[in-house]
């Protein structure tokens, strides 16, 4: 097991080492191997009964210290950029449960502690939901205010956004609801008027300047204080939930900076969303709050159950979709999702949604982000254009993934990646300069989607609803019959077509920059524009050709047959599904997001079609593609292994390699073991009976060896380099005057997973996926032959797929 994290020989060397040379570029952020912001790699909590004295036996003879008797700080923990041992962590948790259950029968106090332990998980979910909901509400309110700040300021109070500023105005007319005396554009404040070319240029200039200022602050804060706060965060969270450790990624600094810079990045007008980063923010909350509870602080597997629930909370507060959030965590990000986690995720998402609803950041007393109310049902024949939107979403998704990965790879391998601040400023300047002239790109992406989802009614003054022949008879409902498009509608169609091309291209280079950037909202915007354009086209087709066979029988003249807003909603789901490959959770999120429960079938048809088309053009979703780009050790459960190779073809050592480095159970000295550690970079060593027999006894981790030897030198008198190390149950008699031996059986895994050399690799891959193994030993007739690590499997799979096996960076 190769391990590039450290190769020191002492307990202290695992904590120190702050050299600037120990940095690596991952996901656009500079990662520091020495970072301990998240959870300290070594748990300093010693048991209260531990004593540093009393190591002498009768007659002053040094007593053999057994690590089974006293816990050693740091043993059983993991170093940075390594994978946890799921089997060991679950075993530790079962042992803890047995101990609590046994003690609970002995006294009332122990019973109370047992009840407290059982309740702690629900209490933690409550805290995660409250904290995430509060942060999300603050982010929504701040982003809305700062987005409007680019266009003007409220005279009643600069802290009011445009909508809140005009709520209390009595001089606002219905036709000009966005104009009120209390709200002044920058041109009105500076030159005194909002009309004329000079005022337009002034507003244009202020818009670009504010955008550049916000983006500069965002990228500067990320680079200076929390490099992990950039990007979406979902690829890294998927990897962390699979058992990988990235210390500091879910720490307090990352939470603080990501929350602030997310507001700045969204407000700058860049083509990005806040939904993916909100999942990262919620996971940071979950990880930080885990420190309050011992059973989550000291067990990495239990902590990942909390993070799975926190991911559900993130989507719940991002979209106001608690059920969709739970399904998103289950379908898209979680690696291990037991039934207990499902219940707790549901509870946490409920608390978060209630908290967000209490804050009411959208000011409409609704939890949903894009509430829609369509007045006409859909017809069966409309499934054809819905499926066409699904095909478009699949093609767009596959194009976006390939283009974005190619751009990100260019960023990583060329000088472009050396200037993150300049890149962000250039992209922001291009975005602002091109976005301002078009009203549909100037408005925030959430407002754009909301307008595209809207169904035109009698009270709508939108350009998209300005049809010709508006003198219609008012009916009981707010719906309007199909009617010919007017000049404003055609103008809006041209502007939307330009906005579609602009959004498709600029999102490719924006996602992955050194600022917090989500992908949900930009992808939905692309699909919503395409859907609205198709919807208007279908509406005009039905109006002018209602006698065609496809419209005859269900679309009579003067009827409200086609709903363009529904097409926008379906298109948004199709494009988001093509990019992320989500299915069930996406449909649930969309109907929770819009309140359009009766339109599930069109959403399902478009989402499924987009997935099929995108999978035909490329098997990976955007998050899996970024995981592979960054070299994370992630075994994708959706990827099938169809090659007929055996364990002996993948294991190390190969035929031309040096023999496997092993430790003999009773024949090596401290000096020999320390030499073995210094000369190799493996993360662990098999323990055998002897070099000749190669009969397997167990497996010991390098980290545990280093900590235990260093700890024994400090606490056990007489342990020197010639001291013998024993992994046997009973220590044989030692020659007189020999230094005291060191018994390390307590740190050895006595039941390592083994397979034979003729085991098919598809079975080995399944074992690694379903049990979360770090390594598996290969035997032949009971003799140790080699070892297979998770990294070896990923390299083998990459080689079989004609990809570069050296792209897998970590174990």
From TrEMBL:
Residues 651-717, 748-805 form the CBS domain. The keyword Transport applies. It is a multi-pass membrane protein. GO terms for molecular function: antiporter activity; ATP binding; voltage-gated chloride channel activity. The chain crosses the membrane at residues 119-139, 204-229, 250-272, 278-294, 306-330, 380-405, 417-436, 492-513, 519-538. GO terms for cellular component: early endosome; endosome membrane; Golgi apparatus; plasma membrane; synaptic vesicle. Gene3D superfamilies: 3.10.580.20, 3.90.1280.20, Clc chloride channel. Keywords: Antiport, ATP-binding, CBS domain, Chloride, Endosome, Ion transport, Membrane, Nucleotide-binding, Repeat, Transmembrane, Transmembrane helix, Transport. It is found in: Endosome membrane; Membrane. PANTHER family: CHLORIDE CHANNEL PROTEIN, H(+)_CL(-) EXCHANGE TRANSPORTER 5. Belongs to the chloride channel (TC 2.A.49) family. This is Chloride channel protein.
